[in-house]
UniProtKB/TrEMBL annotation:
InterPro entries: A-crystallin/Hsp20_dom (IPR002068), HSP20-like_chaperone (IPR008978), Small_HSP (IPR031107). It holds the Pfam family HSP20. SUPFAM superfamilies: HSP20-like chaperones. PROSITE patterns: SHSP. Residues 8-39 form a coiled coil. The lineage of its organism: Archaea, Methanobacteriati, Methanobacteriota, Stenosarchaea group, Halobacteria. Keywords: Coiled coil, Stress response. This is Heat shock protein Hsp20.
Amino acid sequence: MADRSSPFDGIEELLEKLNRQLETAARSWEQSIEDQSQRRLDLSMNVGSGSTSLDIADEDEEFVVTVDVPGYETDDLDIRLSGELLTIEGERKRAEGHDDEEDRGVYIRREREVQSFSRKVTLPAAVDADGIDATINNGILTIRLPKREPDSESHRIDID
């Protein structure tokens, strides 16, 4: 009867194997989360009733931000830079001279309402605010942000 094994003999080995698998999975999840956060670089934060797509390219001497803004005119857009935070906002209003009372009999279907969007992008490096150029062509806003040269001067910091 001594040859007969106990049902509990393999439990410790099974628990150790399960523990190793859980540790491997946890490391994999942590790496996946780290990779996603590095890829994102805090590049976008949508605010407002609508959203728009954007791309950011690093073209050696400058960052180029390309934003889809179909139907928006130059006066409908507001672009601001505060430090390394670029804010792009747009608000498209209904055509002047048109109101609901007047248009009820004209339109069969009306889906193009007042729209707005706001995008905030943290740039990966400082840019030269004086050299920024923005243009709109065929509903695409292109913002060119020249990189600022790193400050190579050293500054003495006094200790109080």
